[in-house]
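Notes from hallway chat w/ T.B., transcribed later so I don't forget. T.B. wanted the structure written out for a chain they're using in a teaching module, and asked if we could keep both sequence and structure tokens in one place. Agreed to drop them here.
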Amino acid sequence: MLSRITNDVNILQNMITNVFIDIVVQGLSFVGIIGFLLYINWKLSLLTFLVLPLAALVLDVASKRLRLVGHDIQQQLAGLSAIAAEALSAIRIVRLFATEEQEFGRFESQSNAHFRALMRGVQTNAALTGIVEVILISALAVILWFGGRLVVSGELSPGELIAFLGYLAILSQPVRVFSRVVAQMQQGLAAADRVFEILDIESEVQPPKHPQRVDDISGDITFRDVSFAYNEGAWVLKNVSFHISPGEKIAIVGPTGAGKSTIADLITRFYDPQEGAVLIDNMDLRRLDLKGLRRKIGVVPQDPVLLKGSIAFNIAYGCEDLSKDDIDNAARIAGIYGFVMSLPEGFQTEVGERGVTLSGGQRQRIAIARAIVRDPRILIMDEATSSLDAAVEQEIQEAMKKAMSGRTSIVIAHRLATVREADRILVIDRGRVVEEGPHEVLKEAGGLYSRLYSLQFGDNHGSPAR
């Protein structure tokens, strides 16, 4: 993907700026010279024109070959970029598993494949150039022989023959340029194919033709007989129905792969259900303005991604009209304000690529601040503490409590300690809601929630099982 955005687009840009200029300039020169040749002697001109179809045939065959080679070159380069980016982003894993030689081998193998593809392109281009030169020289020899006969017979003067040969030599330059342009154009068209493959991919969700504006919502959420599958027939959710009142705190728990995060993806409309409907304030999400809807929803993911930039930039991401007080207040609610102010540059401290200069807990707090700074009416915490240790988890839970105050909140979790204080818990298993109710009721009900709770906390329901 990254190679298509950078390398392929750059090649396409060069084709548009350079190749088209050559085509226009050399094309006009070609037409003008042909006119002069016809003016000097039409017989020699017709003989010259007999060579052009042969040259055109060679260019056509070569262009098809160059198009295929161009595709291969770009594909091998994309693979090379992917291996390098993957190894650099996972450099700690590479060192921990002592696989430096293995990664070097992968890179070397892919680099050799890219080099071989480049050489095939060079060989094809060299063969094209050589064949065109042979055609031009052969044509010049034939014309010189035929023109000499016309001079001997008196049909053509020596000066006219010299002038014709001079213009013919000038005509060879556009032909040579065209042979070079064909190679560049075919590589550019191969890059264009790869770029347009991305542009032609249809979105998972289609915006409505006449979207309904989302100026304000109360946070009322309804799932009405929702069924969803990523792959046809493999249902992740099946006939799921529930209702969340405005301001209610709901927890969603269940085994891995039960469909918990899919519910969050449907609320934010990353996907549309194949059956049923998801409604917010009794409005079908498929009728709402998508950007307006997502601005009313805050999400704290399991693995928060921070962008390269300052802490302030990351907290205010997507909200250009925020004041410093807004950012400060969000940082206080998320419990990150004190840490930020202890830094020499405060909120202007750079977090590095993907927030590498911060700890997991610090990144999570910034993600919470980013979610609540826009004052969303719906807040989704998707496994927000699953990768943190117990001490940091407790601190993040306190920040989450403050963040969820007064908002419709959905907490998706494996660790049941994070969902005890929820107003209601939905237990999902194999894509269905199998239990629903408050913590104390479900714990004593003897169902799936009770079993999960016992596995995590043991029979005494208080301390972790050993």
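Follow-up for T.B.: Confidence is low (pLDDT under 50) at residues 460-466. Might be a good example for the class.
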